[in-house]
Amino acid sequence: MTAWLKHLPQTIAESEVDLLAGDTLPSVWVDRWMRDPQREVIHDPKQGWINGGTLLARSQIAARKLARAGVAAGDRVLISASSSVDLVVAHTAALRLGAIVMPTNGAYRADEVAHVVSDARPRVAIIEDAEWGEWIRAVDKNIVLTPPSISLDEGPDISLDAVKASHPALIGYTSGTTGRPKGAVLSHGNLLSSIRGLEIAWRWTSHDTLILALPLFHMHGLGVGLHGSLAVGAKAVLLPQFKVDQVLNAISEFKATLFFGVPTMYSRIIDSGRANELDVLRLCVSGSAPLSSSLHESIQRESGQVVLERYGMTETAMLVSNLYEGARKAGSVGIPLPGVEIRLEGDASEIEVRGPNVFEGYWERPDANAEAFRDGWFRTGDLGRLDEDGYLAITGRAKELIISGGFNIYPREIEDVLCEHDAITECAVVGVADDEWGEAVAAFVVADRDIGYEEARDFVGRRLAHYKRPTHVRRVASLPKNALGKVQKHRLVLDRDN
Ligand code: MCA
Ligand code: AMP
C-alpha cells in the first residue's frame, strides 16, 4: 500500500487526490478572493483584518508598480521584511506577476546580503532597512529599492496570473557542507502540491485560524503557514515577533484553531506556565528542528495537546508528517505526505525523497545538482530509520549543519569568518546540545592569544546574522586531525565548566 494513504480521511479516495488542483498558488488564491471578497484573510497588528477583495485589488496595484519598475515574469524580486499585511501584498503581487521571489532572512549582514544579491540578481528589493539598501546597491546600483508598502509609481493595467505549475516561484537560500549558500529553486507546482498534501493531511479548511508568529522569510512560516492559509481560504493572524504572551493572547482573542512553531517556541510556552492555554486549539504542529520526547510529553501534560511533528526542507517543502487521525509519535516525524516517496540509502541510511514537491535544482549550480540527486531522488543529508508502522525517525545528519531555534547554521560559514580574525590561525565549529535552542554553536580556535567570548561573538556578529554567533568559544593548542589532515570534529568536546 502507498504509505501516504494513511493521511487520507475516509471520505477521500486515492483517485480523488489532485495535488496540483488549481495549477498554481496565485491562481488558487485569486479564485478564492474573487468568489468571497468580503471574507477576512490576514490580520496584522497595524492594519487589522484585510479581506479577499482588498488583497485582490492591492496585489494587482502592487504588481503594476513592480512591472513599472521593470519586473517581468522570471525576474527575481528579493523580499525581506517583518511580517505584515504589506509584506503579504508584496509577495502575492510578485507571484501573480510571474516573478521569482527571494525570501531573505532580515538578520543577514552585509556579506550575506551581497552573496544572495550577486547570485540571483534581483531587479527589485523589497526591504525595510536602510542599511540593506546600501549593501544591495553596493552590488548593483540599478536594483530598485522599496519598502514593503511598495512606494513606486504605478504602471499600466497588465495581465496577471499567467504563470504555470512548471514555472519557478521561489528561490530559497540554503547551504550544504561547503561553499556559500545555494538558491533552491521551487516551482509553483512544488509549492502548490506541498500545500495540497498538508490540506488533506491536517484537515486544513476555511474554518481555521492560524496564529503565525514564524518569520515569513523561510519555508515554515511562508511556504506552510502563509501559503496554506491563503490556499484553503483560512485566516492567518500575523505576529511580527514571537512573544509567548502575545501568542497566547492572540489564540484566545481570535478564537484560533492552529499554531505552528519550532521547538524553541514550544519550550518557551512551557516555561511561561501558560501552556494550558493551548488546549483550545484544534492542532499544534512542530517542525524545522527535532522536538524532544520530553518536550512533547510536557506539552501534552500541561495542555492535553499531542503536538504533531512534521519534517521538511527548503528544497522540498513538507515531506513527512505524523497523522492527524492516528498515532502522533514522540521522537518520530511520521509518514510521507501525499505524493511523497522516501527511501533510505547506503550504510548510513540517508533519507532520499521524490515527489511533486521536490525542487528541480539549485539556481545556476549544475555541479551542486549533480551531487544533490541520485537516480532522480533528492538526497536530504538527513539520516533516518523506519519503524514497523512505517513512521520515520530522524537519527542524525550526513551534512554538517547546526539547527539553532529552527534556523540553519553551516559551520563552514562561521569557520571562514573566524579565520579572518588576526589572532586565529585555525578553527573548527560544531553544534552542541542546548536546552533553549536545541543546538548551539561551539567554536574551537587555535590562536596567538586568548580570544574572549564577547570578542568572538562580536567579531562573528558584525559579519554574519546574530543567531550564527558562537555560544561557546574554546581556545585549544591544536585541532584533532586524522592522517590526511582532516579535522576530526567528533573529538571536539566541550568541558562545561567555562
Ligand atoms: C534569536 N537568538 C538566537 C536565535 N534567535 N540565537 C540562536 N538561535 C536562534 N534561532 C538570539 C538573539 O540574537 C538574542 O541574542 C537572543 O537570542 C534573544 O533574542 P530573542 O529576541 O529572545 O529571540 P527571538 O527573536 O524571540 O527569537 C527566537 C525565535 C526565533 C522566535 C525562536 O529564533 C525564530 O523565529 N525561529 C524560527 C526560525 C524558523 O522560522 N525556521 C524555519 C526554517 P542577544 O541576547 O545576545 O542579543 S524553514 C525549515 O527549517 C524547514 C523547511 C522546516 O522543516 O520548517
Ligand atoms: P532548511 O534547510 O532550513 O529547510 O532545513 C531543513 C532541515 O531541517 C532538514 O534537512 C532537517 O535536518 C531539519 N528538520 C526539519 N524538520 C525537522 C524535524 N521535525 N526534526 C528534525 N529535523 C528537522
What does this structure look like?
This protein has helices spanning 25-35, 52-68, 85-97, 110-120, 130-139, 188-201, 219-232, 244-253, 263-272, 293-303, 366-372, 411-418, 453-463, and strands at residues 40-44, 48-51, 76-80, 100-103, 124-127, 144-146, 168-174, 182-187, 209-212, 235-238, 258-261, 283-286, 308-313, 317-321, 335-336, 341-345, 350-354, 361-362, 373-374, 377-386, 392-397, 402-404, 407-409, 424-434, 438-447, 472-475. By secondary structure, it is α/β, with parallel strands linked by helices. The chain has a nine-stranded mixed β-sheet with strand order 2-1-10-9-11-12-13-14-15, with helices on both faces. Strands 16, 17, 19, 20 and 21 form a five-stranded antiparallel β-sheet that branches. The protein has a four-stranded parallel β-sheet with strand order 4-3-5-6, with helices on both faces. It starts with 24 loop residues before the first helix and ends in a 23-residue tail after the last strand. The model has no long low-confidence stretch (mean pLDDT 96). The site of adenosine monophosphate has 18 residues, from β13, β20 and β21.
